[in-house]
Design brief:
The protein contains no helices and ten strands. Helix content is 0%, strand content 47%. The chain has a four-stranded antiparallel beta sheet, with no helix packed on it. A two-stranded antiparallel ribbon has the order 2-4. A two-stranded antiparallel ribbon has the order 5-8. It is elongated, with a radius of gyration of 16 Å. A hairpin with a 5-residue loop joins strand 6 and strand 7 (71-74).
Length: 113
């Protein structure tokens, strides 16, 4: 059993990209984004072309963190659908768990509505 305390730390974001088979991604890649700490955020903008058919699509934001597990998170795209979605989807960094014998483990979650 591991009884060592976990200390949140900063994480270095190597790259972020938007990936989708349903939505055309016109610009969707950022390299060497930089370091981010617990509670911090930064805006990223992706340009897409919506498909002709109405519906809700879920392109994924892929985040690669140095020396840690990568994260994939679906972002809803509403194309003329009557279904309601949250007004401002976002990812919020909750920090990294560090232990002397393991690498940093990032944890991301959607921000509350």
């Amino acid at each position: 059993m591991n009884t060592s305390p976990e200390t949140p730390g900063n994480a270095y974001i190597e790259n972020v990209l938007l990936n989708s088979k349903e939505v055309e991604v016109l610009s969707g890649s950022y390299q060497d984004v930089g370091e981010i700490g617990p509670g911090q955020s930064f805006p990223l903008t992706f340009r897409i072309r919506a498909p002709g058919a109405e519906g809700i699509y879920f392109p994924e934001v892929w985040v690669r963190v140095r020396d840690a597990t990568s994260v994939r998170y679906p972002i809803p795209v509403n194309v003329n659908s009557a279904y309601a979605l949250i007004k401002k989807p976002a990812l919020r960094w909750r920090g990294a768990s560090r232990h002397p014998s393991t690498r940093a483990t990032p944890s991301m979650s959607p921000s509350p509505f």
